[in-house]
Design goal:
The protein is an all-alpha fold. It has 13 helices and no strands. 74% of the residues lie in helices and 0% in strands.
């Protein structure tokens, strides 16, 4: 068993899935996914079984939005998964937030700017630098990020994330058997 598989077994034991509600599964993952011993899972989120990946991407979006806003989400490693997060929101029935993030993605595409560029700009800073978005990214990206933040204010995660999580819980409830099957297959490869 490789490191990723070992971490998955610990993060979400197969034998517990059946007896858990969607809310319990999401809560369990959300409580543990940022622990250091699950770093491999976070680094390889794109390789995870789809239902688990959707849970992690949506929890990550919510976490980043509450801590750093939409700009922080996009500047962080999480922002590299914007397209996958949009798809996860669509699968989970949150079309409104998915459309808002699609608009953000479109704004970036129109300016030929990527989340990777934002991340590179932030990584160039030293640990204790105190800067503004304008200083970190320059005028073109700063202006874009102001538009992005305006779009981000409409996300349900920003206003009342209870509805967003109710959708996620229901999605996991509806796909719990699929989640268990996907994990079983993933763990035997």
């Amino acid at each position: 068993m490789n490191k990723l598989q070992e971490e998955l077994v610990e993060l979400l034991p197969l034998e517990h899935i059946e007896g858990m509600s969607g809310e319990e599964i999401v809560g369990s993952i959300a409580m543990d996914m940022y622990r250091a011993e699950f770093a491999t899972i976070r680094e390889h989120v794109a390789e995870l079984p789809i239902v688990l990946r959707d849970i992690m991407l949506i929890v990550d979006l919510d976490t980043e939005l509450s801590m750093n806003g939409l700009t922080g989400y996009l500047e962080n490693a999480s922002g590299q998964h914007l397209r996958e997060t949009i798809e996860a929101l669509m699968r989970n029935g949150n079309e409104t937030d998915a459309m808002i993030l699609q608009k953000v993605e479109q704004l970036f595409a129109e300016q030929s700017i990527t989340a990777g560029q934002l991340r590179e700009n932030v990584e160039r800073l030293s640990e204790h630098d105190i800067t503004t978005s304008l200083q970190t990214h320059g005028p073109q990206i700063h202006e874009l990020l102001q538009q992005v933040e305006q779009e981000g204010q409409h996300l349900s995660f920003q206003a009342d994330n209870e509805e967003s999580f109710d959708l996620l819980y229901q999605y996991v409830d509806d796909h719990k058997d699929e989640l268990k099957q996907q994990l079983e297959q993933f763990l035997v490869r």
